[in-house]
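Hi everyone, sorry if this is the wrong subforum. Our group has a chain we'd like a structural model of before ordering constructs, and none of us has done structure prediction before. Sequence below.
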Amino acid sequence: MVARVFIDGAAGTTGLEIRERLAGRRDLALIQLSEAQRKDAGARRAALNEADLVILCLPDDAAREAVALIENPAVRVIDASTAHRVAPGWVFGFPELEPDGYEQVAAARRVTNPGCYSTGFLALVRPLVRAGLLPADYPYTVNAVSGYSGGGKAMIAEFENAGAPDYTRAVVRSYALTLAHKHIPEMTERCGLRHPPVFSPSVGRYYRGMLVDVPLQLWAMKEEPKPAEIHAALAEAYRGRKLVEVASPAEIAQIKTLDAETLAGTNRIRLHVFGSEKTGQARLVALLDNLGKGASGAAVQNLNVMLGLPETTGLV
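Answer:
Right subforum, don't worry. Here is the predicted structure as C-alpha cells:
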C-alpha cells in the first residue's frame, strides 16, 4: 500500500529538505497544494485529514492549530516544530535514544521531532544518565555551534544577502544570552535531569553542520566515572544503530581537531569521548548535520519507522 503524506509548511527550509528526501519514492504519494490552495483553509484542512501521515514544518502556534484541524483519527503526525517536544501524549522522535524507542515511534499516532542541538546533547548524555554513570543532578553545560541554515530563511538571508539591512559579516555569533533557548526544556526533561543545563549556542558563517560539546568534571561526580567507562556505555547503547556512530578509542587518539561541517549533507550523528584520567575530565562531542539528523533527516527516519519501512529509506 502506498502511504499518502502531506507536508504542511513545505516551503520552509526543513519542509523543502524533507520533500527532497521523499522525492521519487514509489512507496509514498505526496499530497501537494498549489500556492493558492495553501492559503485556502478548506483545502489545507482537507489535505490534513486525507493523509495517512502529516509532517508539520510550521512555527509553533501554527503547528498547534494544524493538529487541532485534524479530525480523522487515522491520521498520524510528525511535528518538526518545538510545539510538542515535551507535551503529554507525544512520542519523542529519536528512536535510538531509549531501549524501546523504535517500538514507541512505530506505534505512535503523534511524534515530535527533536531539536537539532538537543539531538546532540541527548545522544551524548541520556544513555549515561540512564545507566547511572552520570548524575541527574549535575550542573551540565553545553557549548555548540551550528551552520546558519538552522535559523531558517531569515537567518540565511542575514548571512547571504549582502544588500539586506540586517546583513551580518560575523564569523561566529553567540546567542540565547537570556539562558532561555527553546531546546532547553527537551534537553532537561527527555534526559531526566533535575536542573536545566547552561546552554551556550553559536552560529557560524557556514551553511550546514553542527558540533555539540559537553564538558565534564568527572572528579566532581560522586561515582567519578572514567572516560573508558563512558565510551563503553555509549558504544553499547548504540550498538547496531545505523545512523549513530561512536568513534573508537583508536580513532579518538588520532583526532586533533573536529570540524562542525564533517557530516554536512548526511543523516548520521557521530559521538566522541575525549578524556583525561589524570585530570578527571572529559569532553563529549557530537557531530551532525543540523538539517539532517537534526531536522529533516530525523523526520524521514521517523516516517519510515512509523510506516514499517527500513529506517534509512531515502536517507544518505
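For your construct planning: The longest strand covers residues 210-217. The mean pLDDT is 95.
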